[in-house]
Amino acid sequence: MKLLLISSFALLAVACNSTKTAETKKMTPVDYANTITAEDLKTHLYIFADDKMEGRMTGSDGQKLAAEYLRNFYQDQGIAAPVEPNNYYQNIPAEYFSRMKTPAASENVVAFIKGSEKPDEIIVLSAHYDHVGMENGKIFNGADDDGSGTVAMLEMAEAFQKAVKEGNGPKRSILFLHVTGEEIGLYGSKYYTENPIFPLANTVANLNTDMIGRIDPNKKDNPNYIYLIGSDKLSQGLHDLSEKVAAKYSDLELDYTFNDENDPNRFYYRSDHYNFAKNNVPIIFYFNGVHEDYHQATDTPDKIEYELMAKRTQLIFHTAWEIANQEERITADKL
């Protein structure tokens, strides 16, 4: 009887230890980041940058089809619309797009994970899902620009939602913002910041992902990198957090070449993060640089470096995770 009792306690101890191990593993952000895979990114991108999307020009049938793909993904994942039930579109009227030859209504696609402890503090993850459409019978698929950032957001959203389902969701809320109209003048992000779903005063940071699937020819001998732009422009706290996360979770080189105030390319002003920065929201712009297929019909999904893209996406996820879960709120401390 005594032996049986000891054995029972031993079995119970093993079971408890196994449960604790499983619970500890669930709380590790690395486990969620590792659900972001090259294979899944490739699957999404071959659909999103397919000829059927017709280059995703703002207001076109192809852009509408792309918006449906994003909406359906969030619905399938059980990730909520941010305001009205099942309304994942922030509609933008045709007259807003003044630079188009024939203005057409369009929409940002939005989805929302509510924070468990600080739900009124919002992190915005953004990427533009439009591209330049078709010209002379050629389809500009925009696989890197910005299909790569778009599908990276889908994978990050799925990872965060897995954490939510396992009781380990983010403490702060996360808005997944897929903007339209970037290629014609940053219109979708401009519209959002002028008509925010959540007050900009409550927006902790914007992490913007625009082109992360290729290698800059200038980095061909050192491809394990990502360009960061703007991380220190408004918030030293955000910059320091970004550096800390990269050192802990990634072997990617953080390259600040285009963060220089004298950068002739002026990339800081050329993607959707800028409309948040103008409103004093701390930002980071993740970017792989331009290449020979930039804004060409040859920007196709077969040329994407999927393993590298997965590493870059995981880094962004880890950064968002840290911003969402650390005790102190990121603030604009360089105003």
UniProtKB/TrEMBL annotation:
Pfam families: Peptidase_M28. The keyword Signal applies. One of its GO terms (molecular function) is metalloexopeptidase activity. Gene3D superfamilies: Zn peptidases (3.40.630.10). Residues 108-318 form the Peptidase M28 domain. One of its GO terms (biological process) is proteolysis. Keywords: Signal. SUPFAM superfamilies: Zn-dependent exopeptidases. Residues 1-22 form the signal peptide. PANTHER family: METALLOPEPTIDASE M28 FAMILY MEMBER, PEPTIDASE M28 DOMAIN-CONTAINING PROTEIN. This is M28 family peptidase. It comes from Rasiella rasia. The lineage of its organism: Bacteria, Pseudomonadati, Bacteroidota, Flavobacteriia, Flavobacteriales.
